[in-house]
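Quick review question:
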């Protein structure tokens, strides 16, 4: 009986491993139209008795302004092009500030980690979810590459209440196509990403405008995002 149970467990783990690889490979080539985050937000809206809001239009990286990847790198992950999914320098700095200066321990998730979490995992905090985040981050860094990670990130990241991705954000908050966004617009969108349901790119306040200036300054030190080859 015990042997049977262990055999079943081994099969379950083997199937989970194979299916996760196949899913990552599939998303290397096909658009990600829905994510667990989008579905979770819809259930939250239903639970509150609200009308479901879900704005999401997939576009390729070529259909986005060149400033958009630069803006999110300046805001969220300045070493995105050089690390392999995990910014150990940022992790070390955050731990040092926590230990020596008593500052609150920051997560410091990279764009790769955020993409893995948004596309493949549920929201919340647990050691299991964190472990799976590491696993999927390794997979997408290995099987996708930086261009695909950035493309999926900019199409799936939450950018407002019920708004996901650059194209939907451009339509809902700026009244234009994504490609029409200028450098400042891109910086403004990037400024909302720590908390896009609190900070609005449609009606930015004084704090947001200050963040935009900081991001635009940082963008001057970020290289242009490379073309896929």
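Suggested answer, residue by residue:
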């Amino acid at each position: 009986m015990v042997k049977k149970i262990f055999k079943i467990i081994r099969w379950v783990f083997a199937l989970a491993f194979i299916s996760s690889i196949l899913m990552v490979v599939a998303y290397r080539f096909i658009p990600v139209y829905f994510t667990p985050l989008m579905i979770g937000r819809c259930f939250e809206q239903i639970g509150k008795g609200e009308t479901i809001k879900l704005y999401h239009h997939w576009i390729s990286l070529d259909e986005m302004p060149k400033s958009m990847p630069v803006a999110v790198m300046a805001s969220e992950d300045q070493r995105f092009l050089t690390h392999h999914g995990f910014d150990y320098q940022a992790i070390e700095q955050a731990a040092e500030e926590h230990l020596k200066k008593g500052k609150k321990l920051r997560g410091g998730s990279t764009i790769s980690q955020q993409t893995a979490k948004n596309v493949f995992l549920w929201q919340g905090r647990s050691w299991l979810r964190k472990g799976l985040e590491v696993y999927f981050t390794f997979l997408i860094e290995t099987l996708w590459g930086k261009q695909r990670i950035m493309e999926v990130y900019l199409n799936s990241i939450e950018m407002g209440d019920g708004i996901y991705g650059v194209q939907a954000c451009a339509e809902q908050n700026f009244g234009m196509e994504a490609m029409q966004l200028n450098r400042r617009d891109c910086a403004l969108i990037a400024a909302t990403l720590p908390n896009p349901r609190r900070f609005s790119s449609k009606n930015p306040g004084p704090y947001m405008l200050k963040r935009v200036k900081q991001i635009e300054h940082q963008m001057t030190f970020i290289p242009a995002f490379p073309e896929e080859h």
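Why it works: The chain has two domains: 1-30, 55-110+144-220. The mean pLDDT is 88.
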